[in-house]
Amino acid sequence: MELTKNYIEELKNSPNGKLKSFVGQLNGDNAKVVFVLENLGKLPRNFDGEWIYDLANDDNAKIRLGAVKNLGKLKDEKVITFLSRQIQSEEDTTIRREIVSSIGRQRNPISKKILLEILKDEDPKIVCQAIRALLVFRKDEKIIEQLKPLVNHQNEMVRTVIYKEFFAEKKEKSAIPHTETYSYLKNKVVHGDVRDVLKNVEDESIHLTFTSPPYYNARDYSIYPSYQAYLDFLAEVFKEIHRVTKEGRFLIVNTSPIIIPRISRQHSSKRYPIPFDIHNDLMKMGWEFIDDIIWLKSEASVKNRNAGFFQHRKPLGYKPNAITEYLMVYRKETTRLIDWNIREYDKKIVEESKVKDGYETSNVWKIDPTFNKVHSAVFPIELCKRVIQYYSFEGDIVFDPFGGSGTVGRTAKALNRLFFLTEKDDNYFDYMKKQAKPNAMFDEVKTEFLELSEFKTLKSNDTNTASN
Description:
The protein is of the alpha/beta class. It has helices at 5-12, 18-24, 30-38, 50-55, 61-71, 77-89, 93-105, 112-118, 124-134, 141-147, 156-167, 194-198, 227-244, 274-284, 307-312, 338-343, 347-353, 381-391, 407-414, 426-434, 452-461; strands at 188-191, 206-211, 245-255, 258-260, 270-272, 287-296, 324-332, 364-366, 397-400, 418-423, 448-451.
């Protein structure tokens, strides 16, 4: 008889221990035993599972794992006693986690003492599994008294779980619905320092921020007295962006290490790891790290650093051509899951915003850079398209605090999003303003170019605070 899921189902529901007998006749064929265990499915009442206990002590880890999973389906106090002994001798961490899970699935009060003891385990994943099982008994004050102190556990995952369950403050309802924003922000380009502009923006106004900060002392428009001053500036900006970002929404920062050339042959150049240095600041201010995406450029498009090494080939002198930049993806920390954000939208919007076939499946995006006579570091439209499509819905507002030539705004408009840009540099602001002509980047969208004072006045006169 061929071993299939249907045959296992037939044996499972047959009387007289046919399944037990069948497994016993497999004569150590581990693959078949594993197949049986993985396809048992829901067990019928009064199922004779005595034969599974023996398999929980098998030499094969996959067999032990399958046995433990199925023991958890048997509603029997004997299972709890047996598994509480097994976890003490089991060395495989995956099986140990499954043991705790199977004990928890019993939902039997006699497991409380066992699970409380497991909280002392050195493996934080085991501890988290035990917490999950104990939360079934959250009406038991003694259990809660044991769980709450774990908010000070050395492991961050354990702390996060306990904080969410017992200490997270109930968030006040936002002034406007999650899917909406203020009309004074819609399709506006404001001329001024982003820090000054954001002081006039309400909390939780922005759905997505995508930006490339000015490089440290690498362009004429980005001169700072020191590297630390540069990092402090970015921290100040991103802290304000965190405030104005809606709960659980995203910040994508495009940046890369930068090289400051040497002043003479007697001195060396200096390389600054910008994305790595700003990361810790972002985490501290409440951004949760989600992904790192690599923007891969063609080698012909970047400065050649390899010419000297090509000639001499001497070790220590190797310098690769820098053909990558980072898109660091962060989400505003929240105890709510992504699904909550999605459910806030009308089903029609969700459907219309779905990403079409042909999307990028990896975290390496091969996109050629774009060059512009006005701006020396222009976003490629394809890069903007991917970010905006993957991290926002139609009708959302997309923010770029360093607007530059306005690519984020133009792309947002083309994708049926709103945009809000700020730009300090006179030349870039004027360039965007000049593009606001028929058949140009902002056609078909009512865009306003405002000085900071005008923006403040617009906000104060804006009585329609939640139009969409």
